[in-house]
Specification:
single chain; 175 residues; alpha+beta; GIY-YIG endonuclease
Length: 175
């Protein structure tokens, strides 16, 4: 069953056998690049629905996917505070910062938010986020994700003390 929600978002109740075509687009694509994945919610135009995306996901945890409408390429992510994560996506200074070298950021900057659909694949509790994210990685094979393991340490910065310990430990290592 599909419920038209405010603006261009679509709230989906997950019957497994239904494939829903894109709403309001001149395209024959389905909402998911994989017919086996039916998202909980879809925002057809991320540019138009920025405020709605942030407000409707306040205080919620879940798995999301950015899908480039034309190519079908996607990025899967998760957050225990979706509204804060989406605020980061919609903050130009955040995504354009040179040290944040993520393919999805580059794609959003290159194509613009209007060329992307944002899907909330699943709302879930924070304690199972990484397990569910890995499930969607395995099922959807997202092209914009560089690392294919949920919870990978991409972007983690070691403290100076940790760097010294790592350096000392690697000095005696034979390659």
């Amino acid at each position: 069953m599909v419920n038209k929600n405010r603006s261009n978002s679509i709230l989906l109740n997950r019957p497994a056998s239904i494939i829903i075509s894109t709403y309001g687009l001149n395209s024959k694509r389905t909402l998911s690049t994989s017919s086996e994945v039916l998202p909980d919610k879809v925002y057809i135009n991320a540019d138009q629905d920025k405020e709605l995306i942030v407000s409707e996901n306040k205080g919620l945890a879940g798995i999301y996917r950015w899908v480039h409408k034309e190519s079908g390429k996607s990025y899967i992510g998760s957050s225990n505070k979706l509204n804060i994560r989406f605020k980061q996506y919609f903050n130009y200074n955040h995504i354009s910062y040179p040290k944040r070298n993520m393919a999805i950021y580059k794609a959003l900057l290159k194509h613009g938010y209007a060329e992307f659909r944002l899907e909330i694949l699943e709302y879930c509790s924070a304690d199972i986020l990484l397990k569910r994210e890995q499930h969607y990685f395995d099922k959807c094979k997202p092209e914009y994700n560089m690392l294919k393991i949920a919870g990978s340490p991409l972007g983690y910065r070691h403290s100076e003390a940790a760097k010294k310990l790592i350096g000392m430990a690697s000095k005696d290592r034979k390659v």
